[in-house]
Specification:
Residues 28-88 form the Transcription regulator PadR N-terminal domain. The protein has helices spanning 6-13, 18-26, 33-43, 52-64, 84-107; strands at residues 31-32, 68-74, 77-82. The protein is an alpha+beta fold and 117 residues long.
């Protein structure tokens, strides 16, 4: 069994890369790698296009760290789901992002006045 100390896992993953965040977020239901790629593409309106190497590398790392587990092995497709530690990490990261958003809104001035680069 991999790393199951929540404190260690928290330190390793929070703050989270956008890739890791969306992969974990996509596991709101069990999905295989390609299903994750398509889901992330859909919910980010194709802004984030994940390569299969990136996805499988991250899934392997997350599995080793106890954040996700294999839900089922269907013919040639491994289906993953979040563990309790994965849920804890995701909740912690979402709370961090909420704080970022609140502070950006409160102190960011009217950033919409500035043209996009």
């Amino acid at each position: 069994m991999g790393m199951l100390n929540p404190e260690k896992v928290l330190k390793k993953y929070v703050p989270m890369t956008e890739t890791a965040f969306y992969i974990l977020l996509s596991l709101d239901e069990p999905r295989h790698g390609y299903g994750i790629v398509k889901h992330v593409e859909k919910i980010t309106k194709a802004r984030l296009l994940l390569g299969s190497g990136t996805v499988y590398g991250t899934l392997t790392k997350m599995q080793k760290d106890g954040m996700i587990t294999v839900f089922a092995d269907e013919e040639r497709k491994t289906v993953y789901e979040r563990t309790d530690i994965g849920m804890l990490i995701l909740a912690t990261e979402i709370n961090r992002l909420k704080e970022l958003h609140e502070n950006a809104t409160k102190y960011g001035g009217d950033v919409n006045d500035h043209q996009k680069i």
